[in-house]
Design a protein that fits this description.
Distance between the termini: 80 Å
Largest sheet: none
Structural class: mainly alpha
Shape: elongated
Number of strands: 0
Helix content: over 70%
Radius of gyration: 25 Å
Number of helices: 5
């Protein structure tokens, strides 16, 4: 009887061990799936930002920015009047690329894939520097993740910058 009871206990412990192993395997698979989703998002965002930057970066973006800044942009949106239509198109493409890159940075911070201090300081300073330019060129945030729009609105409010509407428009 003792041997029979010992076998039952060993069988029970073995089954519990198998269940724990399966639970750990499921947990690890879920973590890998989350990481894969985050990597895919980052790759898509990087590709989109790169396309926008290539569109804008004909080697003349610094000249375009200097012309706009010399005319008072972004403090004076009418400073964009100093640009021709093609230069405005390039500037919008460049700003859209920056927006995509910063939005991707935001996502990576949310997924805890970047250092927390980097997310607090550098990401915030990037948002602060780009908000007036996005607003001045009317480059909206409507195509971005809702959490990014909420975060930009929060930072803009705290810094006394133009605040985008809830839908990301200006």
């Amino acid at each position: 009887m003792n041997m029979d009871q010992a076998n039952k206990w060993l069988s029970l412990l073995t089954n519990v061990g198998v269940l724990i192993g399966i639970a750990l395997l499921i947990l690890e698979l879920n973590q890998n799936a989350e990481l894969t989703r985050a990597e895919m998002h980052a790759m898509r965002a990087d590709a989109k930002a790169e396309r926008q930057m290539m569109l804008a970066n004909s080697g003349e973006i610094s000249r375009i920015a200097q012309t706009a800044f010399a005319a008072g942009f972004p403090g004076k949106p009418e400073g964009l009047d100093a640009l021709n239509a093609l230069d405005r198109f390039r500037l919008n493409g460049f700003l859209n690329g920056l927006k995509e890159a910063i939005g991707n940075w935001h996502y990576l911070c949310q997924q805890h894939m970047l250092d927390a201090e980097l997310c607090r300081s550098s990401y915030r300073s990037q948002v602060i520097s780009i908000v007036p330019m996005l607003q001045g060129t009317n480059v909206g945030l409507g195509d971005m993740r809702e959490s990014f729009v909420v975060d930009v609105r929060r930072i803009a409010t705290e810094e006394g910058l133009p605040v985008p509407n809830e839908d990301g428009s200006w």
